[in-house]
């Protein structure tokens, strides 16, 4: 019994160490409209996608009609353009070695001061305190789950593919409504893709 217990402890320690050094694909970390926290994409299902909450580890099926945004597709507006959320999180991680990351419920002035150090030229008219609270909350969740080591991004491509990536980047930026989400071109109703790459139509079915 004692030997089995010791073996289990060794295995659990190994799993924890391995998990700590795993790199995370931000495309599979999702923010879901009307749901707090973050969710990790697990797999596709007949009615949507299976996700796991980073808060309580519970798994659930999100309908394909749910508004889900990958953290890889989110950017923060600056005075001269945008900064990808991935870079923002990496900057916060570096800064956290010197000072504490503010609680999402902190005073607005404290959050503004902190993010001025993280993104000195952020656009105050489009990167609201509500956005700052959300980013602080996301960072804390990722940190608590040892998910701050990110996979390398794919090399940028030129031509049409490059233009498409640029459009996705803009759609993933924080918008004026106060939440992170896709801003679709006027009059367009394109299909969405799950993190596995499977297309999901806006009506809830899958594309061809």
Question: How do the helices and strands line up, and which of them pair or pack?
Answer:
Layout: H1 2-20, E1 29-32, E2 39-45, E3 48-53, E4 59-63, E5 68-70, E6 75-77, E7 82-84, H2 85-95, H3 108-118, H4 129-144, H5 159-171, E8 192-193, E9 199-200
Antiparallel strand pairs: 1-2, 1-5, 2-3, 3-4, 6-7, 8-9
Describe the structure.
This protein is α+β, with helices and mostly antiparallel strands and 208 residues long. The chain has a domain at 75-153 and 161-171. The protein is 34% helix and 17% strand. It has five helices and nine strands. The chain has helices at residues 2-20, 85-95, 108-118, 129-144, 159-171; strands spanning 29-32, 39-45, 48-53, 59-63, 68-70, 75-77, 82-84, 192-193, 199-200. The strands form three sheets. A five-stranded antiparallel beta sheet has the order 4-3-2-1-5, with no helix packed on it. Strands 6-7 form a two-stranded antiparallel sheet. The longest helix is centred in the first third of the chain and has 19 residues, at 2-20. The protein is globular, with a radius of gyration of 19 Å. The model is unreliable at 10-20, 155-173, 175-192 and 198-208 (pLDDT under 50).
């Amino acid at each position: 019994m004692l030997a089995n217990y010791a073996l289990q402890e060794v295995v659990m320690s190994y799993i924890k160490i391995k998990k700590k050094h795993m790199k995370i694909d931000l495309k599979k970390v999702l923010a879901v409209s009307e749901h707090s926290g973050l969710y990790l994409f697990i797999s596709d299902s007949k009615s949507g996608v299976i996700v796991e909450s980073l808060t309580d580890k519970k798994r659930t099926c999100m309908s394909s009609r749910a508004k889900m945004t990958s953290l890889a597709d989110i950017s923060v507006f600056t005075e001269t353009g945008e900064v990808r959320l991935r870079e923002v999180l990496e900057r916060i991680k570096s800064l956290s070695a010197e000072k504490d990351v503010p609680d999402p419920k902190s005073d607005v002035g404290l959050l503004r001061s902190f993010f001025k150090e993280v993104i000195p030229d952020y656009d105050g008219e489009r990167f609201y305190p509500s956005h700052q609270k959300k980013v602080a909350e996301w960072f804390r969740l990722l940190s608590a789950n040892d998910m701050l080591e990110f996979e390398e991004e794919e090399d940028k491509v030129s031509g049409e593919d490059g233009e498409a990536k640029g459009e996705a980047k803009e759609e993933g930026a924080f918008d004026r409504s106060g939440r992170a989400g896709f801003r679709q071109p006027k009059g367009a109703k394109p299909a969405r893709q799950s993190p596995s790459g499977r297309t999901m139509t806006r009506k809830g079915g899958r594309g061809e």
